[in-house]
Every structure is written in C-alpha cells, then in structure tokens.
C-alpha cells in the first residue's frame, strides 16, 4: 500500500468546554474519494481546518508528504474588503494565475467582475470553486460544495471531480452527489472517527450495523448506552423504516397524480369531479409572465390539490422563484389567472432564513421566553419539542451563537413548522442541514396535512418527497411530471436528444400503404418495463448489504476468500444494475413515444 499523502495520529482538539474529539487517526491516500459524514456540531468543518493547517491541534501529529497542496473549499468564505469576486479569488500567496481562474469561472458561468458585497450565494460559491480548483490541489477538502449551486453547475462539478486525479474529502448533505463520487466513508460520531472502504451508497447499512452491535453490547452489560444523545441514535433504524413506509405511500400518490396529468404533462381540465374541485387549493390557467423581451413562464396550466407536494427545479435564472411567486400570489401574471383557495394560510421558509441574533436563547427563538410552544394549536413543553427536532432537550437556555449554521437552520425549521398552516413554501430548505435532519424533514413533510411547494436542487430529497415536479428549462416552458427529480430528468433527456426528422418524400399514388405503427409495447418490452425497477431495487439492497459486510476492517485478515468474493459480487452487481437501468430507460422511452402518438 502506498504511503498516505496526509496523516493525523492521535488527533485531539479541546474547545475550552471539553474535548471535541480525541485520539483520532486519519490517513489519506493519493487517490482517495472520501465522504465525511456526521451530525451538525460534531466537528466536521473543524476537522477540515485542522487538515488544511488553518488551526493547530491540542494533541497529535500531522504528517504531510513534501509538496502536497491541500486546498479547502469553505462553506462561506470571508470576502469582506474585496471590491469584486476576482479581487478575492486572486488575493493571497497561494492564489492561482488569473487565466486559470477565469477558465474555470467561464465553464461555471460566473462573472468574476461582480461586486463581492452584492454577489448572491450562488455567485460566491462559484467564485470559491473556481479559485479552489484552479489551485491544482493534491487534496481537495469540499465543505458542502453543492450549496447554492443549480443543477447545471452540480453536473459540471461532478464531471470535473470524476476526472480529477487527486484525492478529495466531501462534506455534503447531497446524497446523490456522494453516491456518484465517493468510494470510502468517514463517520465522525460522538468524538470518534470510523472509516469504511465503501462508498456512500453503503453508509446506511454500515451505520445501522454499528448501532445494532452497540445496543447488544449495552444489553449484555445490563446498562443503557452511555452517550449524550442515545434517544436519537437508537431511533435511527426505526426512523428509516418509517420513511420507507412513507416512500411507498409517496409512490402511490404519484401514481394517482399521473392519472390526472396528460401525456405531455399538461393538467387534464376537461372533466372535473366535485371532489377534485373541493380539493383544489391553487388553480393556474394559461399563465404567462415576461420581464422585458424575455418570457419567463409561458402558457402554464396546473391545478394543485390539497396534499400535493410540488417540487420546482431548473437552473438558476430559469424562473423557479418567479413561478413560486405567481403560485403564492406575491406577483401577478401578465396573462392568464391564478386562483387560490380563500382559506389558504401559508408559512414561507426561504433561503434567506437567517441569521438569528447570537445572544438570543433557544427559548427566545421558539417561544419568546416561555416554557411552552404552541404546535399547530396544541401546547407542548419546549424540551419535548426540541427532542422532536433532534436537539438535546437541555439546550433550552443555550445561546444561538454557540450553534453551528446547520443547527441554526434546524432550529428555524422547528419554529416555522410549529405554526398553524395549510400551505408550506420551502425555498432551498436543505442547505446546511445534516442527513439525519433531512430524514426528519422528509418525515415532517410526509405527515403534513396541507400542500407543500419546494424549490430545491437536492435531487435525492426531491425524489423522496414530492408527488409532482415542475421543471423549467429557461425557455418559458414548464414540464409537469408526476414524480420526483429522476422522473423529470428521464422525461427531458429523450427530448434533448431528439433530432428534427428529415422531410418524408411524398408517396406516389401507386405506392403501397406504409405498415401501421405499433400501438403498444411487445410482451417482452412491457415485461421489462414492469419488472426491472424491482430488480434494480433488489440489486441495490444486496449491494448495500455486501458493502456493509466488506466494511469490517478485520474481514480480509479473518477470511480473505470472503473478502475477494464480496468484492467480485459488488463489481458484478454494479454491471448488472447498469445494464438493467439502460434497458429500462430504453423501453420507458418507447412507451412514452407510443403514448404521445
């Protein structure tokens, strides 16, 4: 095995109130692709700063190969004092050459001459990525790299990292990003750092196995698990099982919604039962909106019903916010109309949710100082409500300034979800949240009795949450698709690849009639369309189980034959899955073409 390019041995950091972590060992290879997972507040960003040599450890030894360049992509870099994004990107001894930054910025679509003090979160993030990648790092530390990026930029970054020849470690709540790119996983939990040689796809099974082993050990000792947040960790498996049940219900709702949508994604309005009319909360008909010469929304029609979970996706500037404002009544259409139920009572949680005053206490934010919080009209002890949102119940008097960015976002979500409403509007709700909070947010949305509108670039979150996806491509057209992000992506890919057919020559009068087109799939094609999704799910389950077993650090020493057999099994399973997925996409496109006539 090659020597690591960066190591920490017996790492310890004391934050004054106690050890954040102690006795950690970490070795990073030259081609490692690592996911760093952990709850908000466990010290992931702090660990990155230690690896980047920005702060000093209280204990331990840091060893780095000579000439190794370590670059940290921070979540929110300090740009104060710089006139433009370019001034910031070119500042410092380690700044790359201007032409190298400009080349990457051009591919990311960011103008570095933008004033730093007025730049949006997405512009600042693109500038930071341009600087980090242009530094030609040997080890790249990515702290929430997809925050504030649109889908086009995320695709570009994933492609760049896929070709990157160095090592990287990524902190991210974006499950799709981690599944596609990582090959090993680091888990920072309760001051301990564990490593498994599995990609993020096997993380859940690995963690549940560890929790199960801890629970058994505690039972043998006839004692409770002595960890500060045992009530959270012992509920992880149960929560995931509940969410699997909710996913099954979500798929059923999508199937019901599909029946209400035409083949092109336009709502069927010709036949409306009294029940459908009664359930309608937002009715948009032939809505258009332009700014200057640019059409943002063109001839958009959709009836949104009570209980719908609507996801809105598209590149930055495609019109997502405009569509959201049209639906909620914040702006009016140029043509068409949007009718909203008179009883609609909305809670809006936008991406500017923000910076609560550091000196305030938790109880001040939630209840203005009270011991009780009104949760949808029902009083509840603040301690119990904090526990529902994965906080230690003893933190009622903690100052907001002691919380991480993710913990502040979670606290704000807790406050907003307590309000009585029948419409939730969530603009980029997943930014800064850890994965356990995302599981909780998915759970809360699934149980919400009203209607939900979600603008998000988090593909996995949308796939787990929404019943209908509205996809914008910037031309004014809005695709309406029953399902999540993957369903929309599948719908738009065939369209993007379609080429204009050549004009057909006119048939002579004596020419025989052309054979009629098939009106339905063959038996084999229909069978593959129906069965392959289930086969893919079975492969994913088996692969995750094999990866979890392979994560045992003693397996190779104990049973090398089993180790090699598992490695081959996973490799074969991935190849089979890819073939199944390609075949399913093929027959799905055939079915869509037949349906469209």
Polypeptide structure, described:
This protein is of the alpha/beta class and 597 residues long. 41% of the residues lie in helices and 21% in strands. It has 20 helices and 20 strands. The strands form five sheets. It has a six-stranded mixed β-sheet with strand order 5-6-7-3-8-9, sandwiched between helices. A six-stranded mixed β-sheet has the order 14-17-18-12-19-20, with helices on both faces. A three-stranded antiparallel β-sheet has the order 2-1-4, with no helix packed on it. Strand 8 (184-189) and strand 9 (192-196) form a beta hairpin. The longest helix has 36 residues, at 560-595. The chain is globular, with a radius of gyration of 26 Å. The termini are far apart. The model is unreliable at 223-236, 262-278 and 498-515 (pLDDT under 50).
Brief overview, please?
The chain is of the alpha/beta class and 597 residues long. It contains 20 helices and 20 strands. 41% of the residues lie in helices and 21% in strands.
C-alpha end-to-end distance: 58 Å
Low-confidence stretches: 223-236, 262-278, 498-515
The total of helices stands at 20
Mean pLDDT: 82
- How much of the sequence lies in strands comes to 15-25%
Strand order of the largest sheet: 5-6-7-3-8-9
Number of strands: 20
State the share of residues found in helices, binned by percent: 40-55%
Strand count, sense and barrel status of the largest sheet are: 6 strands, mixed
Shape: globular
**Helix-and-strand structural type:** alpha/beta
Task: Compute the CA-based radius of gyration.
Answer: 26 Å
């Amino acid at each position: 095995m090659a020597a690591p390019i960066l190591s920490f041995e017996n790492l310890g950091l004391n934050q004054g109130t106690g050890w954040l972590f102690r006795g950690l060992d970490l070795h990073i290879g030259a081609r490692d692709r690592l996911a760093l997972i952990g709850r908000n507040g466990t010290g992931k960003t702090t660990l990155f700063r230690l690896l980047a040599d920005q702060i000093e450890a209280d204990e331990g030894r840091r060893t780095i190969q000579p000439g190794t360049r370590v670059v940290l992509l921070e979540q929110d870099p300090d740009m104060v004092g710089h006139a433009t994004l370019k001034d910031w990107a070119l500042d410092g001894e380690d700044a790359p050459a201007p032409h190298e930054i400009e080349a990457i910025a051009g591919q990311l679509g960011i103008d570095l001459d933008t004033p730093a003090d007025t730049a949006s979160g997405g512009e600042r993030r693109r500038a930071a990525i341009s600087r980090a990648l242009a530094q030609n790092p040997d080890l790249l530390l990515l702290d929430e790299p997809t925050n504030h990026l649109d889908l086009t930029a995320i695709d570009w970054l994933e492609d760049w990292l896929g070709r990157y020849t160095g090592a990287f470690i990524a902190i991210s709540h974006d499950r799709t990003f981690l599944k596609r790119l990582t090959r090993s996983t680091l888990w920072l939990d309760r001051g301990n750092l564990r490593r498994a040689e599995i990609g993020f796809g096997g993380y859940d099974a690995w963690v549940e196995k560890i929790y199960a082993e801890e629970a058994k050990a505690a039972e043998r000792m006839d004692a409770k698990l002595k960890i500060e947040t045992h009530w959270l960790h012992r509920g992880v498996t149960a929560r995931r099982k509940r969410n699997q049940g909710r996913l099954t219900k979500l798929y059923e709702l999508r199937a019901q919604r599909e029946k209400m949508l035409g083949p092109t994604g336009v709502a069927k309005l010709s036949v409306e039962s009294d029940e459908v009319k009664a359930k309608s909360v937002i009715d948009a008909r032939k809505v258009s909106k332009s700014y200057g010469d640019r059409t943002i929304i063109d001839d958009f029609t959709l009836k949104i019903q009570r209980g719908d979970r609507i996801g809105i996706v598209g590149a930055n500037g495609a019109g997502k916010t405009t569509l959201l404002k049209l639906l909620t009544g914040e702006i009016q259409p140029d043509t068409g109309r949007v009718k909203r139920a008179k009883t609609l009572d909305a809670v809006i949680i936008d991406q500017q949710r923000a910076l609560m005053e550091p000196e305030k206490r938790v109880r001040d934010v939630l209840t203005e100082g009270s011991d009780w919080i009104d949760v949808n009209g029902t009083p509840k002890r603040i301690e119990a409500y904090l526990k529902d949102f994965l906080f230690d119940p003893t933190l009622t008097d903690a100052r907001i300034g002691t919380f991480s960015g993710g913990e502040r976002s979670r606290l704000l979500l807790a406050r907003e979800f307590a309000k009585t409403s029948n419409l939730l509007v969530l603009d980029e709700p997943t930014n800064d949240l850890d994965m356990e909070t995302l599981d909780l947010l998915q759970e809360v949305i699934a149980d919400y009795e009203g209607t939900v509108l979600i603008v998000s670039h988090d593909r996995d979150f949308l796939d787990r949450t929404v019943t209908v996806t509205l996809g914008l491509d910037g031309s004014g057209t809005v695709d309406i698709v029953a399902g999540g992000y993957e369903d929309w992506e599948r719908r738009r890919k065939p369209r993007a690849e379609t080429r204009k057919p050549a004009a057909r020559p006119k048939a002579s009068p004596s020419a025989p009639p052309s054979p009629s087109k098939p009106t339905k799939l063959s038996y084999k094609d229909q069978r593959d369309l129906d069965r392959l999704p289930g086969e893919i799910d079975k492969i994913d389950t088996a692969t995750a189980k094999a990866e979890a077993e392979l994560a045992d650090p003693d397996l190779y020493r104990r049973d090398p034959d089993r180790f090699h057999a598992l490695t081959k099994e996973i490799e074969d399973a991935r190849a089979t899955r890819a073939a199944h997925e390609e075949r399913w996409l093929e027959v799905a496109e055939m079915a869509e073409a037949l349906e469209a006539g």
